Design the sequence.
């Protein structure tokens, strides 16, 4: 078989929302881009996640990146050509106890200057605002401009948008080998493709660990499998994206009326496929029935899960390699990468084009996990 | 449960015969069935207080129905029978059951899946109007509830069930306004040699057709429904008779294009599937005895490929014998051989049936853009075609992700066949190349009460 050789400025491994938006912003800056996706763009975690687009409840050091993403979500149609069912419904983090309320209040204090505009709700005002919530919830923290979107539509659309701007998107093309020959990165992918590039972006999600290891910086990346369910269409009643302080379920209702409810963990079928599992499904049903009494007479019609990358400190890896100049990582978003995705792409593009970014990302350096020694040239 | 810890899913002809063979070899299987009474769809029993004679309910199949019902009655004290119970999820060694709104788990060591079939539906304009039913539903109304879907009914589509249901309706006193068969007479003549492998079955088929015509029912071949007419409910049907358009008045329409296998449980358990050109479907693979690709999981009856009720009985028994053999129990090898020979003969007959009632391969090319394909999520043919055109989608799960087709209450059990046909036509790919919808629990919707502590 003859080998197809491509030379480009930037090679991207992974067509999830991070890699695809990086491709989009790099093309907007005029760089050559080849994106290698082993399946279909946006078909893994980026396409099957819950669909939360929220800043609230993130660690403080993620808020600048998340705020940047918030601005990009506001321009979604301009960026990807569709609205992706994105709505700024507000995100309400629920409290089930006074201690929960105190924790939410403390978070509000800490983020007072971050632009989230959090509002505490409790007592009669809370019941009036959310009469459809069960007695278990006693109050909450509302972030009015957070919301939700349809990941099945949004994430593939980033890839299509990049492609329209000239990115060379190769689907069903797994990367088999990645290295650096002293001058350029050399990737062997699919059956017979060889890509040489000046920069390499590792946006391979839960599968990014082996790529980093190829460049001498192994990371303790593990796979997790959030469990999701969806109901039949119901009359509209949940007008917010809901979370629960301290964990538990999260829920939103889409325009068609279906309630998407996540919570707990599923299990891996193999390295790339996962299922919700009946234990997680039944736990979701039980908790959702308590929190949202209107669901008691509804049905769940489908469950699913995905494969997401997690690091021990629940922070992503975003930034330059500690071993290999030109290699930049963007992976491991610990189940909270969908909202960040567009900003991650823009930051990666800045790092390639300018060698720096205006968004603080030092906390996400891969070096925090590795005692990496640069590979001798 | 005792001994080999066998669970049989389904109490139709395959499940009953499987359970019977297991009991005969000293096992006490659990038999889980979604229906309140045994018999499956084909030999479905009416509620106990209904008094319609079996002869009227089952016609020529009365002997077969009584055989299956009697077999189950004879073993019910020696099995763990769980009627009214949905298997809503499955994984290795464990099933999730739903009974009276509550979920429980059922462990197994060996499993026979006899999950049966539903109608294969190819929509036509107006198919969501009240008064339009699938052929299977029309038959269930008659068999289980003793009522007809209308008083002046048109039956359309193709397949042996088309004539059987029309015959049953006419016998029950309904006016059958017409039978519209998309297959042509030439198809049937060409299929005769293969059909002669099962002369008794062929004779029954010919009898229904002859009876209908002798009783003044118009039977049109090479005909297809174009539009169900009416605003609030069906008032008539516009249809095509070769090149000519016709119209007739009716208050109900039963339609269907043969059957499709219920494969979700085999899929959830990881049984490997392959595209079966004859049935135009991806089916779980099984050997001649019913062994799936997964050790300890056996497949019997129409749930793993449509072979009909007689074959389902043989396949159920054969799968049970295979299970016992694999577990080291001595079985009658001659009997096993005879069953396999019968099943092989049926396979030849099935090829004839597909020749006689061919799938209307031009369906996808001819449906209008505004035809609703997925009624749960209200997705039209035009929306599917646009998604293929705009996104380059070539795989069915991708099309589902982009358009919601197959994401609703039916989970693609009704619309999946039609969606795959539209995708294949719009993308220019052969039907076997567009994939199949992945199974996702729950197999059917489950209530929130299932999670109550």
Sequence:
């Amino acid at each position: 078989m003859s080998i197809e050789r491509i030379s480009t400025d930037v090679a991207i491994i992974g067509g999830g929302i991070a890699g695809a938006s990086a491709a989009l912003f790099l093309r907007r800056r005029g760089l050559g881009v080849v994106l290698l996706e082993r399946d279909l763009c946006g078909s893994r975690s980026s396409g099957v996640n819950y669909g939360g687009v929220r800043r609230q409840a993130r660690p403080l050091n993620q808020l600048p990146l998340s705020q940047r993403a918030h601005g990009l979500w506001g321009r979604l149609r301009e960026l990807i050509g569709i609205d992706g069912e994105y709505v700024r419904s507000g995100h309400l983090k629920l409290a089930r106890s006074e201690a929960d309320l105190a924790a939410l209040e403390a978070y509000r204090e800490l983020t007072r200057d971050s632009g989230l505009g959090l509002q505490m709700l409790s007592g009669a005002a809370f019941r009036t605002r959310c009469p459809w919530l069960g007695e278990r919830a006693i109050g909450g923290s509302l972030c009015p401009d957070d919301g939700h979107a349809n990941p099945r539509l949004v994430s593939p659309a980033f890839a299509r948008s990049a492609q329209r701007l000239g990115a060379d998107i190769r689907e069903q093309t797994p990367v088999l080998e990645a290295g650096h020959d002293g001058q350029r990165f050399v990737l062997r992918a699919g059956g017979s493709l060889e890509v040489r590039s000046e920069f390499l972006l590792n946006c391979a999600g839960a599968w990014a660990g082996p790529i980093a290891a190829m460049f001498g910086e192994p990371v303790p990346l593990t796979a997790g499998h959030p469990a999701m369910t969806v109901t039949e269409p119901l009359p509209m009643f949940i007008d917010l994206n809901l979370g629960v302080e301290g964990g538990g379920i999260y829920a939103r209702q889409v325009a068609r009326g279906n309630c998407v409810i996540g919570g707990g963990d599923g299990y891996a079928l193999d390295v790339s496929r996962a299922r919700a599992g009946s234990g997680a499904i039944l736990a979701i049903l039980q908790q959702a029935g308590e929190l949202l009494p209107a669901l008691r007479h509804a049905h769940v019609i489908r469950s699913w899960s995905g494969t997401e990358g997690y690091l021990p400190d629940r922070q992503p890896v975003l930034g330059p390699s500690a071993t290999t100049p030109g290699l930049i990582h963007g992976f491991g978003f610990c189940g909270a990468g969908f909202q960040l995705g567009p900003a991650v792409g823009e930051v990666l593009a800045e790092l390639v084009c300018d060698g720096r970014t205006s968004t603080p990302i030092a906390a996400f350096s891969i070096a925090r996990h590795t005692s990496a020694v640069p590979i001798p040239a | 449960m005792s001994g080999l810890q066998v669970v049989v899913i389904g109490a139709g002809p395959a499940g009953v015969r499987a359970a019977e063979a297991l009991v005969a070899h000293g096992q006490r299987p659990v038999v889980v069935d979604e229906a309140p009474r045994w018999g499956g769809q084909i030999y479905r029993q009416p509620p106990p207080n209904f008094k319609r004679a079996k002869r009227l309910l089952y016609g020529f199949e009365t002997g077969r129905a009584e055989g299956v019902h009697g077999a189950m009655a004879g073993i019910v004290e020696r099995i763990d029978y769980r009627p009214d119970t949905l298997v809503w999820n499955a994984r290795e060694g464990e099933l999730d059951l739903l009974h009276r709104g509550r979920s429980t788990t059922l462990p197994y060591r060996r499993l026979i899946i006899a999950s049966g079939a539903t109608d294969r539906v190819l929509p036509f304009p107006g198919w969501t109007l009240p008064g339009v039913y699938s052929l299977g539903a029309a038959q269930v109304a008659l068999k289980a509830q003793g009522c007809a879907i209308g008083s002046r009914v048109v039956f359309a589509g193709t397949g042996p069930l088309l004539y059987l249901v029309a015959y049953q309706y006419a016998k029950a006193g309904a006016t059958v306004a017409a039978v519209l068969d998309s297959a042509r007479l030439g198809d049937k003549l060409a299929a005769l040699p293969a059909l002669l492998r099962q002369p008794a079955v062929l004779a029954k088929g010919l009898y229904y057709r002859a009876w209908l015509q002798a009783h003044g029912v118009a039977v049109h071949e090479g005909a297809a429904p174009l539009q169900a007419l009416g605003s609030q409910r069906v008032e008539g049907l516009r249809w095509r008779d070769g090149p000519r358009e016709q119209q007739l008045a009716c208050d109900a329409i039963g339609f269907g294009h043969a059957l499709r296998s219920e494969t979700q449980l085999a899929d959830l358990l990881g049984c490997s599937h392959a595209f079966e050109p004859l049935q135009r479907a991806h089916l779980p693979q099984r050997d001649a005895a019913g062994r799936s690709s997964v050790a300890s999981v056996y497949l019997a009856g129409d749930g793993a490929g449509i072979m009909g009720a007689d074959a389902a009985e043989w396949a159920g028994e054969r799968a049970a014998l295979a299970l016992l053999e694999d577990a080291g129990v001595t079985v009658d090898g001659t009997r096993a051989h005879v069953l396999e020979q019968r099943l092989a003969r049926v396979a030849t007959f099935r090829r004839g049936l597909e020749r006689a009632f061919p799938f209307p391969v031009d369906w996808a090319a001819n449906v209008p853009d505004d035809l609703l394909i997925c009624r749960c999520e209200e997705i039209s043919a035009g929306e599917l075609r646009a998604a293929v055109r705009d996104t380059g989608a070539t795989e069915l799960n991708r099309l589902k992700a982009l358009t919601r087709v197959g994401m609703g209450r039916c989970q693609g059990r009704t619309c999946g066949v039609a969606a795959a046909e539209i995708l294949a036509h719009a993308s220019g790919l052969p039907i076997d190349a567009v994939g199949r919808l992945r199974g996702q629990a729950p197999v059917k919707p489950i209530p929130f009460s299932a999670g109550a502590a």
The first strand of chain A starts at residue 4 and ends at 13. Chain A touches chain B through 35 residues (CB under 8 Å). Chain A has two domains: 4-49+152-220+312-368, 91-144+226-305.
